[in-house]
Amino acid sequence: MTFALAGLLAASPLLAEPSPSAAELDWRPRAELPAEVRDRLPVFCEGGYLPSTGGGAPMPALGGVAAGDLPIHASGLSARYEIDRELYLTGDVRLRQGAFSVSGDEARYDQRTGTVQLGGSLVSRGEGFLLTGDEAQYDTVSGQFALNTATFLFHQAEMRGSAATLARLSDQQVLIRDGSLTTCAPDRNDWSIVAAEILLDQAEGFGTARHLRLEVKDVPVFYWPYASFPIDDRRKTGFLYPAFGTSNTGSGLFLSVPYYLNLAPHYDATLTPQYIHGRGLLSEAEGRYLSRFGESVLQLGYIGNDSEFKDEHPAENGQRWALDFTTRARFADGWSGYGDYSVVSDNDYLSDLNRSLDISQATHLQRRGGIRYADDHQYFEAYLNGYQTIADRIVESNKPYAQLPELLYGGRVNLGPLEAGLESQYSYFYRDNAELTGLDRSNGQRLRLLPELALPLRALWGYTRPSLTLDHTYYKLEDYELGERQFDRTVPVLEWDSGLYFDRRLALFGTDYNQTLEPRLYYAWADADADQDTIPDFDSALRSFSFDELFRRNRFSGGDRVGDSNQLTLALTSRFNDLETGSERVRFSLGQVYYYDDRAVTLDGLGADDRSDSPLAGELVLRPLDTLDLRHSMLWEVRDNVTEESRSQLVFHSEDYRYLASLGHTYSRDAFEQSDIAAVFPVTDQVSLIGRWVYDSQLNRTVGSLAGLEYNSCCWSVQLVHQNYLTDDEQLENRVLFQIQLKGLGGSSGSSSRISDAIYGFDERERRRFGDQY
Fold this sequence. Notes:
Largest sheet: 26 strands, antiparallel, barrel
Shape: elongated
Low-confidence stretches: 6-16, 54-65
Radius of gyration: 35 Å
CATH topology of one domain: lipopolysaccharide transport protein A fold
Helix content: under 10%
């Protein structure tokens, strides 16, 4: 070991001054932060931490070299040295060894033991941390450092605290005794963890504490004998924050305490036992597995004795369960795979019990798995697909068919100026139809081929694409009672799609724009047999008419009905593009279909029509600001001068997403009319109001609402939300959800996911506030 002395001046020792805390040394009020740091800081934060140069800059990491093999650099205003025994420094003492550095008022180095006793206003700065104290001992052989009456700061986690004693066990480990820690600003302790012993391990990214209590405003609110917690964004096995709330859907109060298992870098699990008043103990589990091909997620839920369910269904034993599995994989050379499987024990499971399983409350749960291939010229997909129907109101004849399997192939090739393409589909449709009759009883195979020959021509000023397609379908049926079980259908289809591009430059309100005018002409002719009522309906439906439907030749989805058509679509689109930013500020589209023949093909009695034109379909998008969108779509019945359908939505968010607002109106003639309004509105820098209201004019009632309060500070936030929602049996149910976030320590779950479903932009707002914790 070598010892170097530097900067020794003959001067009287300085009087020791009280040592400022580590947080006070590096804390800067908001106004004193550099502009780039201040701009990233949330508005509710009063300031932030900036590492100062006090105490000296950190040296490079040891890199596996033992502390005893590194030279020691020391300096002071005065020094006294006893050969081979002791070095005593006073006045602005600075000591360095490898990555370790400390400054203080005095230091006494014992050459025989290799220890340094330090005193005065001590400051020790390292990579990502800062320590202060009154007295310390440093072992130059092992590199261990012990500090009395200490304070500390970890810059990345913005975590500060104090301790009776603090020991730096290594470059990455700190042991705190009789200490406390928090992520709040230096002048406030909104919350803190106080413990007899705290071990902070920066290498592993977590801390452990014994005999700890959570204090709010220095008032103890929670005690636990042992706990571990993250100090950065890495995963760590341990309890997560509990979630609680209330609901009147037969669930009452509930309390859940999730436990996270960080089993390996590529797989983990979360166990969530929760008690639901009136029902009992519900256990949920989630497992995630990440391979070099992709990610798989398995979610389970189980309750062994649901007392309320037994009261409602005396014949049942009260056992209820759910499973949801998803997997995604990407292989080499354009191949990929996927799988989705969901199942529940009964139709009411989701509405009664589901709080965290990733299954939407729909009428059907899908089970689908398959493989895909795609390149620039062709694609292939093979999958199995089925459903579980979970709505009692759906009769057997309306339940969807399973595809066991379905095979898809498509490709295109250039033949000089021509383009040849093929779309094909093979399906085996199956449904338990034992109780049904007629067409509804049928199962069977369907092969559909759509070869196409087209002449695509494009230029800067427009395009044209005439094409000829043969829509051929072959059936081989089972349990078919209306004739031959094998038959086919071939429909020739002619399409011609053309468009022109006009543009000009203009200035409006001091801004330069490029305005386009895009007329489009689309013709479709299909010589389909009007009598298709003897063909089963495996997957077809009549499409809802909208602006996009102006350019479809078949008014039916699926493959069991091919619509007869002889129609011409005229449409016009105009855009205003900001030449400075490239943003599309305005888009207006209007179009109408003109029919030259009556439509005769039907599905369940729907689809036939003898009128010569369609409603006028239009879309309007206004984006005057990057933070403001107005969208409107409509169907206008020209003959009766009435609106058939319309949807309007105004969406606003501030640049930092603190302000969110949306207005919406949906109308369908003789069907429904709903209005909704949603907003997140900051009352102060810390307090925001959250709300949404959905009203149905035809039912003359509220069909959904959400109202809540959010409080934010730089170290914690809380949300309290009350939600109403309409169930399948048209009952308005309600629940109260609560969520708290402690910065640096995660938070409970409960309200954010519900709010994100209801209010546009709220998920982005949460990500900006909490980053990866959300």
